[in-house]
Amino acid sequence: MDETAETGEIRGTAQGTAPVPLSVLDLVTVGAGRTATDALRTSVHIARLAESRGFHRYWVAEHHSMPGVASSSPAVILAHLAAHTDRIRLGSGGVMLPNHAPLVIAEQFGTLEAMAPGRVDLGLGRAPGTDGATAAALRRTERLNEGADDFPEQLAELTRFLDDDFPDGHPYARIHAVPGPVQSTSPGGVQSPHRPPIWLLGSSGFSARLAGVLGLPFAFAHHFSAQNTVPALDLYRESFRPSAVLDAPYALIGVSALATDDEREARRQVLAAALNMVRLRTGRPGLVPTPEEAEAYEFSPMEREFIDSWNANVIHGTADEVRTGLDDLQKRTGADELMITGNAHSGDVRLRSYELIADAYGLPKVQGTEA
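Above: the chain sequence. Below: its structure as tokens.
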């Protein structure tokens, strides 16, 4: 790969008064009374807003068997978003590699790269993105630990498919991911100089260390593993070895943040999102409830304790309060990029949140793109 091009695709530029580049993580949440079609339409609106306001990238995350999360097929959603955007980077945050054959992922993201040249990221995780039974159904095996333990080998195989560089004598030496580099070596072939940069995702130290050793960019799930954020980022930086991809560490963190026009409304919205998490964590996944349902819900003491702990890591309030919270978090962690996920029952609330955050940081309004 071309080192300069690859590094340029990874590192963003801070816009307005933001301390670092700002990006979006979309879980394609489905609220009660809404459909997956509604959620996907919201994703298009948010992606176009993000592009028009200078957010650096827009990622979607793989989840399964969760009624309130319609992002089971990241590659399909990214193709849809590619058709509705022109400049913003699009990617997976992430594809859960043990759920898939590496060749399939190389083909999917090679296709996405052909659709949106030079603006596709491939973020990879080693968790299933679901419960054990669903993971077994996805993988057609009950040996779930094997997939996570084999992650480094799966990653190496995927990378070789993306680069089309299996050594002579390897069983896969004559197998090619298409679209991909092999097309440039065919008679008359011309191939794009780009290939999706690989990111490693994590919520603990395993992927942090692996990303550092391999010299890859790293994305940490602060939004659901806040207690591990600083240790994981420290481990990533300590383990980092320069590579053809990066000459220095580059880490982003996923952050739950929701801005509304008044503080009370923010509290109502995050309570509803937290109730959804309570139900998910207790084996009752469903659609994201309305704020009215959450306000009427009788929380047990244990559920209330979980709610308080969960919402302590959700930056919410007015635009100014959210900006202050994001600034403080970036200073505390030294993150090179903040990827914001705003979870709420209503798509309009989520869209408004990103607009308010953009305004709070004075992000520029890019001509030629309509939200």
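Confidence is low (pLDDT under 50) at residues 1-7.
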